[in-house]
Amino acid sequence: KEKTSLILSYALVLLILSVQPFLVNAIQGLLINDLVQLSSAVIKNIDSYLLLLLILLLLFRALTPFFFAIQSYLTRVIYLYIGEKYELLVIKKKGELDIAAFENPKKSDLINKVKENGIWRIQSFTERQFFILQNMIEVFIAAAVILFFQWWVFFIVFIGLIPKFLVEIKYGNQTWSIHGATAETRRKFWDLEGHFNSLSSLVELKLFQNSRYFIKIIQDLLVSFRLEEKKNDRKNLWLQFIVIFINQATIAIATIWFVLMVVWGKLEVGTLIFVLASMGDLTQSLSGFFRNVAFQYQDSLFVSDLFKLLNLKPEIIKPTKGIKLNTKKTPEII
User: Fold this and answer.
1) 271: number of CA atoms within 13 Å, CB side?
2) Which is more confident, 303 or 43?
3) Interhelix angle for 269-310 vs 48-96, to 10°?
4) pTM (two decimals)
5) Closest CA relative to residue 169, chosen from 291, 284, 47
6) Cα separation, 255 vs 280, whole angstroms
7) Rounded to whole angstroms, what are the CA distances from 192 to 93, 113, 201, 215?
8) Contact 36/268 with Cβ under 8 angstroms?
9) Confidence band, pLDDT 50/70/90 cuts, at residue 66
10) What are the CA-CA distances from residue 10 to residues 6, 14, 75, 79 (Å)?
11) How far apart are the first and last CA of the chain?
């Protein structure tokens, strides 16, 4: 319920930015069709229809940077708000936990995982929800355009992007699994790394002259938990090459088909430009939607850990009724 006006304003700006490219492409296509007809006419006069299209095209293009500036401002406001709420919630929870909770290895690993990912995960998770909404609007509009001209083109483009979605989901799941599996190693790394951030610890390192020893351990820990991530990234790169090839093949088939329609006289040149631009928007929006959903799944794992942290209880349960001491008698030491 907080910041409702801010969220609605941001959603409205994203809606306008989602619709704007299709309006510009449509007007541009109509303008080209009218110019082609005018070039073949005997008397070449700029009619009111052509002038109206030109004015609308310039107007929409001129307004777009203003909406991007508003989006950038609202994004910054949301980032600051989410960061503030996150910091206060985590600090409050740490203050509620007792020392025994911090000494518990599993709870300590959980606290470290949340700390290591910091504010950016929760900020990205929040912002990406709006991007997914924007992707859905763009996909709906682009799909309507493509389905109107040739229904099967939409389906082959859609099917060509499904492997990319599956690869992104798999990569996100493996990345977070590696992150969880190396939680203990990461905790040791951050504990040792903390010795170089505290003045008192730095003084001890200098006095005992064991900085190189600590650096060697930190280096070994860093290499150990980065090794699996590097292997996963290399594997993902090759899978990305395969799914990109599949996607580009479907786009090539669709493009050739629409060009042939122009050759056969079933489609005007301006309409071709509009359809190809819509197909590009469809591909980009679908790809963005699948990518954002995959990243959202990965970030949701962090959000799940964040809520696990916020739901932690102190290890030592305080009695509901305290022991009442007799002020007139010295307490017995058992």
Assistant:
1) 13
2) 303
3) 10
4) 0.66
5) 291
6) 10
7) 24, 16, 10, 9
8) yes
9) very high
10) 6, 6, 8, 12
11) 53
Is 72's pLDDT higher than 70? Answer: yes
- Pair of tokens at residue 146: 């493509």
Report the Cα 125 to chain-centroid distance in Å: 6
Inter-residue contact 27 to 273 (CB < 8 Å): no
Amino acid at 312: L
Distances (CA, A) of 266 to 66, 167, 251: 38, 38, 20
- The Cα 193–Cα 217 span in angstroms is 10
What stretches of the chain show up as alpha helix (H) in DSSP? 4-40, 48-96, 99-103, 105-149, 151-181, 183-193, 199-208, 211-263, 269-310
Share of the chain above pLDDT 90, in %: 1
Task: Report whether 153 contacts 207 (CB < 8 A).
Answer: no
Return the ∠ at Cα 270 (arms to 245 and 21), rounded to 5°: 65
Neighbours of 79 (CB within 10 A): 16
Q: What is the mean pLDDT of residues 203-221?
A: 77
Residue keyed to tokens 């307004």 = 63
Distance of CA 156 to the CA centre of its chain: 26
Sequence letter at residue 294:
A
Q: Single out the residue of 253, 274, 251, 246 nearest to residue 149, CA to CA.
A: 274
Q: What percent of the chain stands above pLDDT 70?
A: 88
Token representation of residue 86: 């996150």
